[in-house]
Amino acid sequence: MGDTDLSDSAAPQAGNRRFAALWEPPPTPTRGRPARVNRTQVVDAAVAIADESGLDAVSMRSVSRALGVGTMTLYSHVPSRDHLIDAMIDRAYADFALPDPTLPWRPALEAYARGYFSLLRTHSWLLTVNTWRMPLAPHVFDADEAAFRILVDTGLTANQVVETVGIVNRTVSGFARAADAEVADERDQGTDYETYWSAQTDFWENTFDPTRYPTMTRLWTVGAFDDAATPFDLRIGSLLDTIELLIERASGSGSAVPSFDDCMRLPGPDPAGCAGEATDT
To answer: How far is CA 203 from CA 11, 197, 198, in A?
Structure first.
């Protein structure tokens, strides 16, 4: 990925070492000459490169060039490119506008989805990150916590809460990926979305066969495609309707998720395990 050096491809780090600096950054050295750059500047420079040119453009060399320092200077702040990307993701997630925790579940979940969509549009390189291996980072956890909190007391089972948040996340990322592809085509082809489809009139008049595609024709006749989402819209009303039906069916089922206090009283070495598995974000 990008121009790399020997430390850009670090082996998986064990235990807490890989993510420790995301929670408690190392102290600033008090001896020797003052550092020319700090950890925050390094991470911000890397995020700026990724926002402009994609994650592949981020390497220890490209970041050091952007900051005007030697590559070795970066290693006092981030030991490898893997550590740097972890920090970049955490920094990007700090821009996630999380919903008001006092909102009812439906407006809260819609606000969460729109906040996630905005995050992915602002930092589209996040779409290339493996969401099954997200860094154990505070701002990523803040987003997960906010999402789970919306649904945890609706009557859904613990598994349903996690699965539903995962479905919302993947739906939103699909819209964001479509928007990102549209931006790329507009740039490369020189035509915007409306202009492209306006130029296809001849196809619909002379090539499209309604008898071969009767279902599409029925939907088109009543304007369904006119009202459908474009790459820059986030239309999730039908998804929220489905979740609402799921919640209504779960109401009174007696399968509520245990309270936090109950979880902390459970026996075992890891009470936090009561929360269940984390979902991909």
So the answer is: 53, 10, 11
For residue 43, CA distances in Å to 22, 67, 74, 127 come to 11, 11, 10, 18
240 vs 161: CA distance, rounded Å: 13
Residue 252 DSSP code: T
Both structure tokens of 130: 């493996």
pTM for the structure as a whole: 0.84
Residue for token digits 């905005």?
118
Query: To which residue do tokens 């495609």 refer?
Result: 225
- Tell me which DSSP letter residue 236 carries: -
Domains in the chain, please, with CATH? 6-93 (1.10.10.60), 105-275 (1.10.357)
| Residue 279 near residue 144 (C-beta atoms within 8 A) | yes
If one counts every other C-beta atom within 10 angstroms of the C-beta of residue 184, the result is 11
The C-alpha R_g of the chain, in whole angstroms, comes to: 23
| Segment 189-234, tens digit of pLDDT | 999 988 998 899 999 999 999 999 999 999 999 988 886 667 788 8
